[in-house]
Structures are given as C-alpha cells and as structure tokens.
Design goal:
By secondary structure, the chain is α/β, with parallel strands linked by helices. The protein has helices at 13-23, 38-48, 57-63, 79-87, 102-115, 129-140, 158-163, 172-175, 177-188, 203-206, 290-304, 312-331; strands at 4-9, 28-34, 52-54, 68-71, 91-95, 119-122, 146-155, 192-200, 214-221, 226-232, 243-251, 255-259, 267-268, 272-273, 281-283, 286-288, 335-336.
Length: 338
C-alpha cells in the first residue's frame, strides 16, 4: 500500500483520538466517520474537516473504499460493527477490550481469518514509555525473570458517573484491567494459568450504577510468576488526576517502580491537578503521545506488511483473562485457565 484510507466508527473521546492519529500520519487519508449521535457527528466533522459522515456504519462501509476502520464504540458495542467491517473485507482496529465475552472475541478473530484481513486491538499502553523501557530490560535479560508485580490503575468517580453514560454495562475489569492484564502478560511473555479475584459493590450501586466499586485480581502464570491487579473508579473527584496509575515489578535481578499518575507538571488554579500529557495531547499544534504511537504502529504494519506490536491472539488472551476475573469474583473461587 502507498497510502491507507481509514474511517472511524464511534467518535467519543477515544474515537476522536483515532481521528487525530490518522490525520497526523502522512500516509493516511481519513475519509469518513460514523456515530449515532448527530450533534457529535456534526461537531467532529466540522472540527477536522472530514468529507464524509454517517450515522449508519453499514451505509459508510457500502459507500467508501477503505483499508482500515477503527471501532471505538463503548465496550459492549464492538461485535456488530467489527463483524460488518470484516464482512466487507476491511482491516479493523478495535479499542480494548476486544469484547466482553470470549465467544464474541472468537467470532471476530475467526471472521478476520476467514476474510484474510487483520484484526488489531489497541493496547496503547505497550507504547507507554516506562512500560516499554521495562519490557526491553526484561527481554534483554537485564531485569531477570519477573517474579511478581503489583499494578494499580484506577479512576475518579467522575468516570462512571459523568464521563460514561454506559458504566453499568461494563466494569473496571473491562474498562481498566484490560490495560493492566495485557501489560503484565506482555512484559512477562508468559500465559496466565489461574485467577482469583474479589469485587465490592456499594458506592456506585447506591447511585443506581450496577457495577463494582473496585476489583482486585491475583494472577498466576505458567512459569510460577504472579501479578496483583487493582482497579477502582470511586476515587474522589478532588484527586489531582482523573487516573491513578502506579506499579512495581520485582525480578530476580532488578526491581522497577513506575508511576505515571504524576506526569512532570503540577498545576494550581481553582483545583490542584496533574495534567495528563503522555497519552494523547495536542502539544505545539501536534498530536502527541503513546496512543498516537500505538495507532501509527498498526498503520505502518499495513503499509510495510510487517508485524505490529499486537496480534489477534493478544486480543483473545486478554478477554480470556478478563472473563476469568469476572467469573472468579462472581463465584468466589479460583478459575483455572485452559
């Protein structure tokens, strides 16, 4: 391919980041966007001067010649648009998690293989610099074997009560642990063998949002290594960052401490904040951050017929782990992964 023709289905916060990533790549032509929210659709098409906009993704797929389509709809609404894109023989990039059920994820992967196209999952934190540095140290042997890790990725209560209208249709398992479960599997380069998880329902349930306040999951890997994942989204809105993201990794030779909550700037105004800059920001009129790098890696893999940093198998493995976490806390038992 000399140039990639792209479109985006679902243009909320993350879908808009896909738009920014595509228009910032010199070999990408963003030719269309789709969203059921007409007001948002009109706002985005004007902001980015996009020629074609649709409220029906099937109509968009029928009318545009496309090489790659991003699906950035809410967590629980990935299956139908992804299958439609694949049915049209078009490569698809799906925001994590691939699905909420392993059976749905498997349908997508099988369809992509049947159609001879690629299915990518945007595990953007693989391009988050501290984790990428650690991955390199583990791969080089400098770190030694990772014995244990603790990763906390949490949000303030703003996210499930104000940012997401569909919080009760997902959970911190899929919205947040999809990141951390992928990170530990990627850094360890090993498969999860068992999961034991716990969840608590109180704050959000009292607000009419039927989803856990927090989930804690203990993962054991085939090589004997372990990881503890913790995610909550009931931190107070007064917290200086909407995201709290910290971790430590203990190895046979080294230890790594990673804190991406504080991103090198503190800002004091009406509220004291840690502005988030590393993920997806406009800096000096340029789109910057590891979200862009992740999407550009997928574009470049299509242009150069090369392997990207994520695969269909990574998407399936992620859902298998997340489903096991959910099953474990619901049944209050350890889940053995096959």
């Amino acid at each position: 391919m000399d140039k990639i023709r792209t479109a985006v289905i679902g243009i909320g916060i993350q879908g808009e980041n896909h738009i920014k990533a595509y228009i910032s790549h010199p070999l990408v032509e963003l030719v269309g966007v789709c969203d059921i929210n007409e007001k948002r659709l009109n706002e985005i098409t004007r902001r980015y001067n996009i020629k074609n906009s649709f409220q029906d993704y099937n109509e968009m797929l029928e009318n545009l010649e496309l090489d790659l389509v991003s699906v950035a709809t809410p967590d629980f609404l990935h299956l139908d648009p992804v299958l439609s894109v694949l049915d049209n023989g078009i490569n698809v990039l799906v925001e994590k998690p691939l699905a909420l059920r392993f059976e749905d994820a498997k349908k997508m992967v099988d369809k992509a293989r049947d159609k001879g196209v690629r299915l990518f999952v945007n595990f953007s934190n693989r391009f988050n610099p501290p984790f990428a540095v650690l991955k390199n140290k583990v791969e080089s042997g400098e770190f030694g074997k990772v014995l244990y890790s603790y990763i906390r990725l949490s949000d303030t209560i703003y996210v499930p009560t104000k940012m997401l209208s569909w919080a009760s249709k997902t959970s911190v398992v899929y919205f947040l642990m999809s990141h951390t479960a992928d990170l530990v599997k990627w850094i360890y380069n090993n498969e999860v063998s068992s999961v034991k998880a716990y969840a608590h329902f109180e704050v959000l349930k009292n607000l009419g949002i039927d989803t856990p306040d927090y989930v804690i999951a203990f993962l054991t890997f085939n090589n004997g290594s372990t990881a503890l994942l913790e995610s909550s989204w009931v931190l107070p809105e007064s917290y200086p960052s909407i995201v709290d993201f910290r971790s430590e990794f203990i190895g046979t030779k080294s230890t790594a401490f990673i804190d991406t909550t504080f991103q090198m700037i503190e800002y004091a105004a009406e509220k004291y904040t840690f502005p988030r800059t590393y993920g997806a920001s406009i800096l000096n009129d340029r789109f910057f951050g590891f979200v862009k790098e992740s999407i550009h890696n997928i574009v470049d893999s299509l242009l150069n017929k090369a392997s990207p940093y994520t695969s269909e198998e990574d998407g399936l493995a992620n859902i298998r782990i997340l489903n096991a976490i959910e099953e474990s806390y619901k049944k209050n038992k350890e889940i053995i992964l096959k």
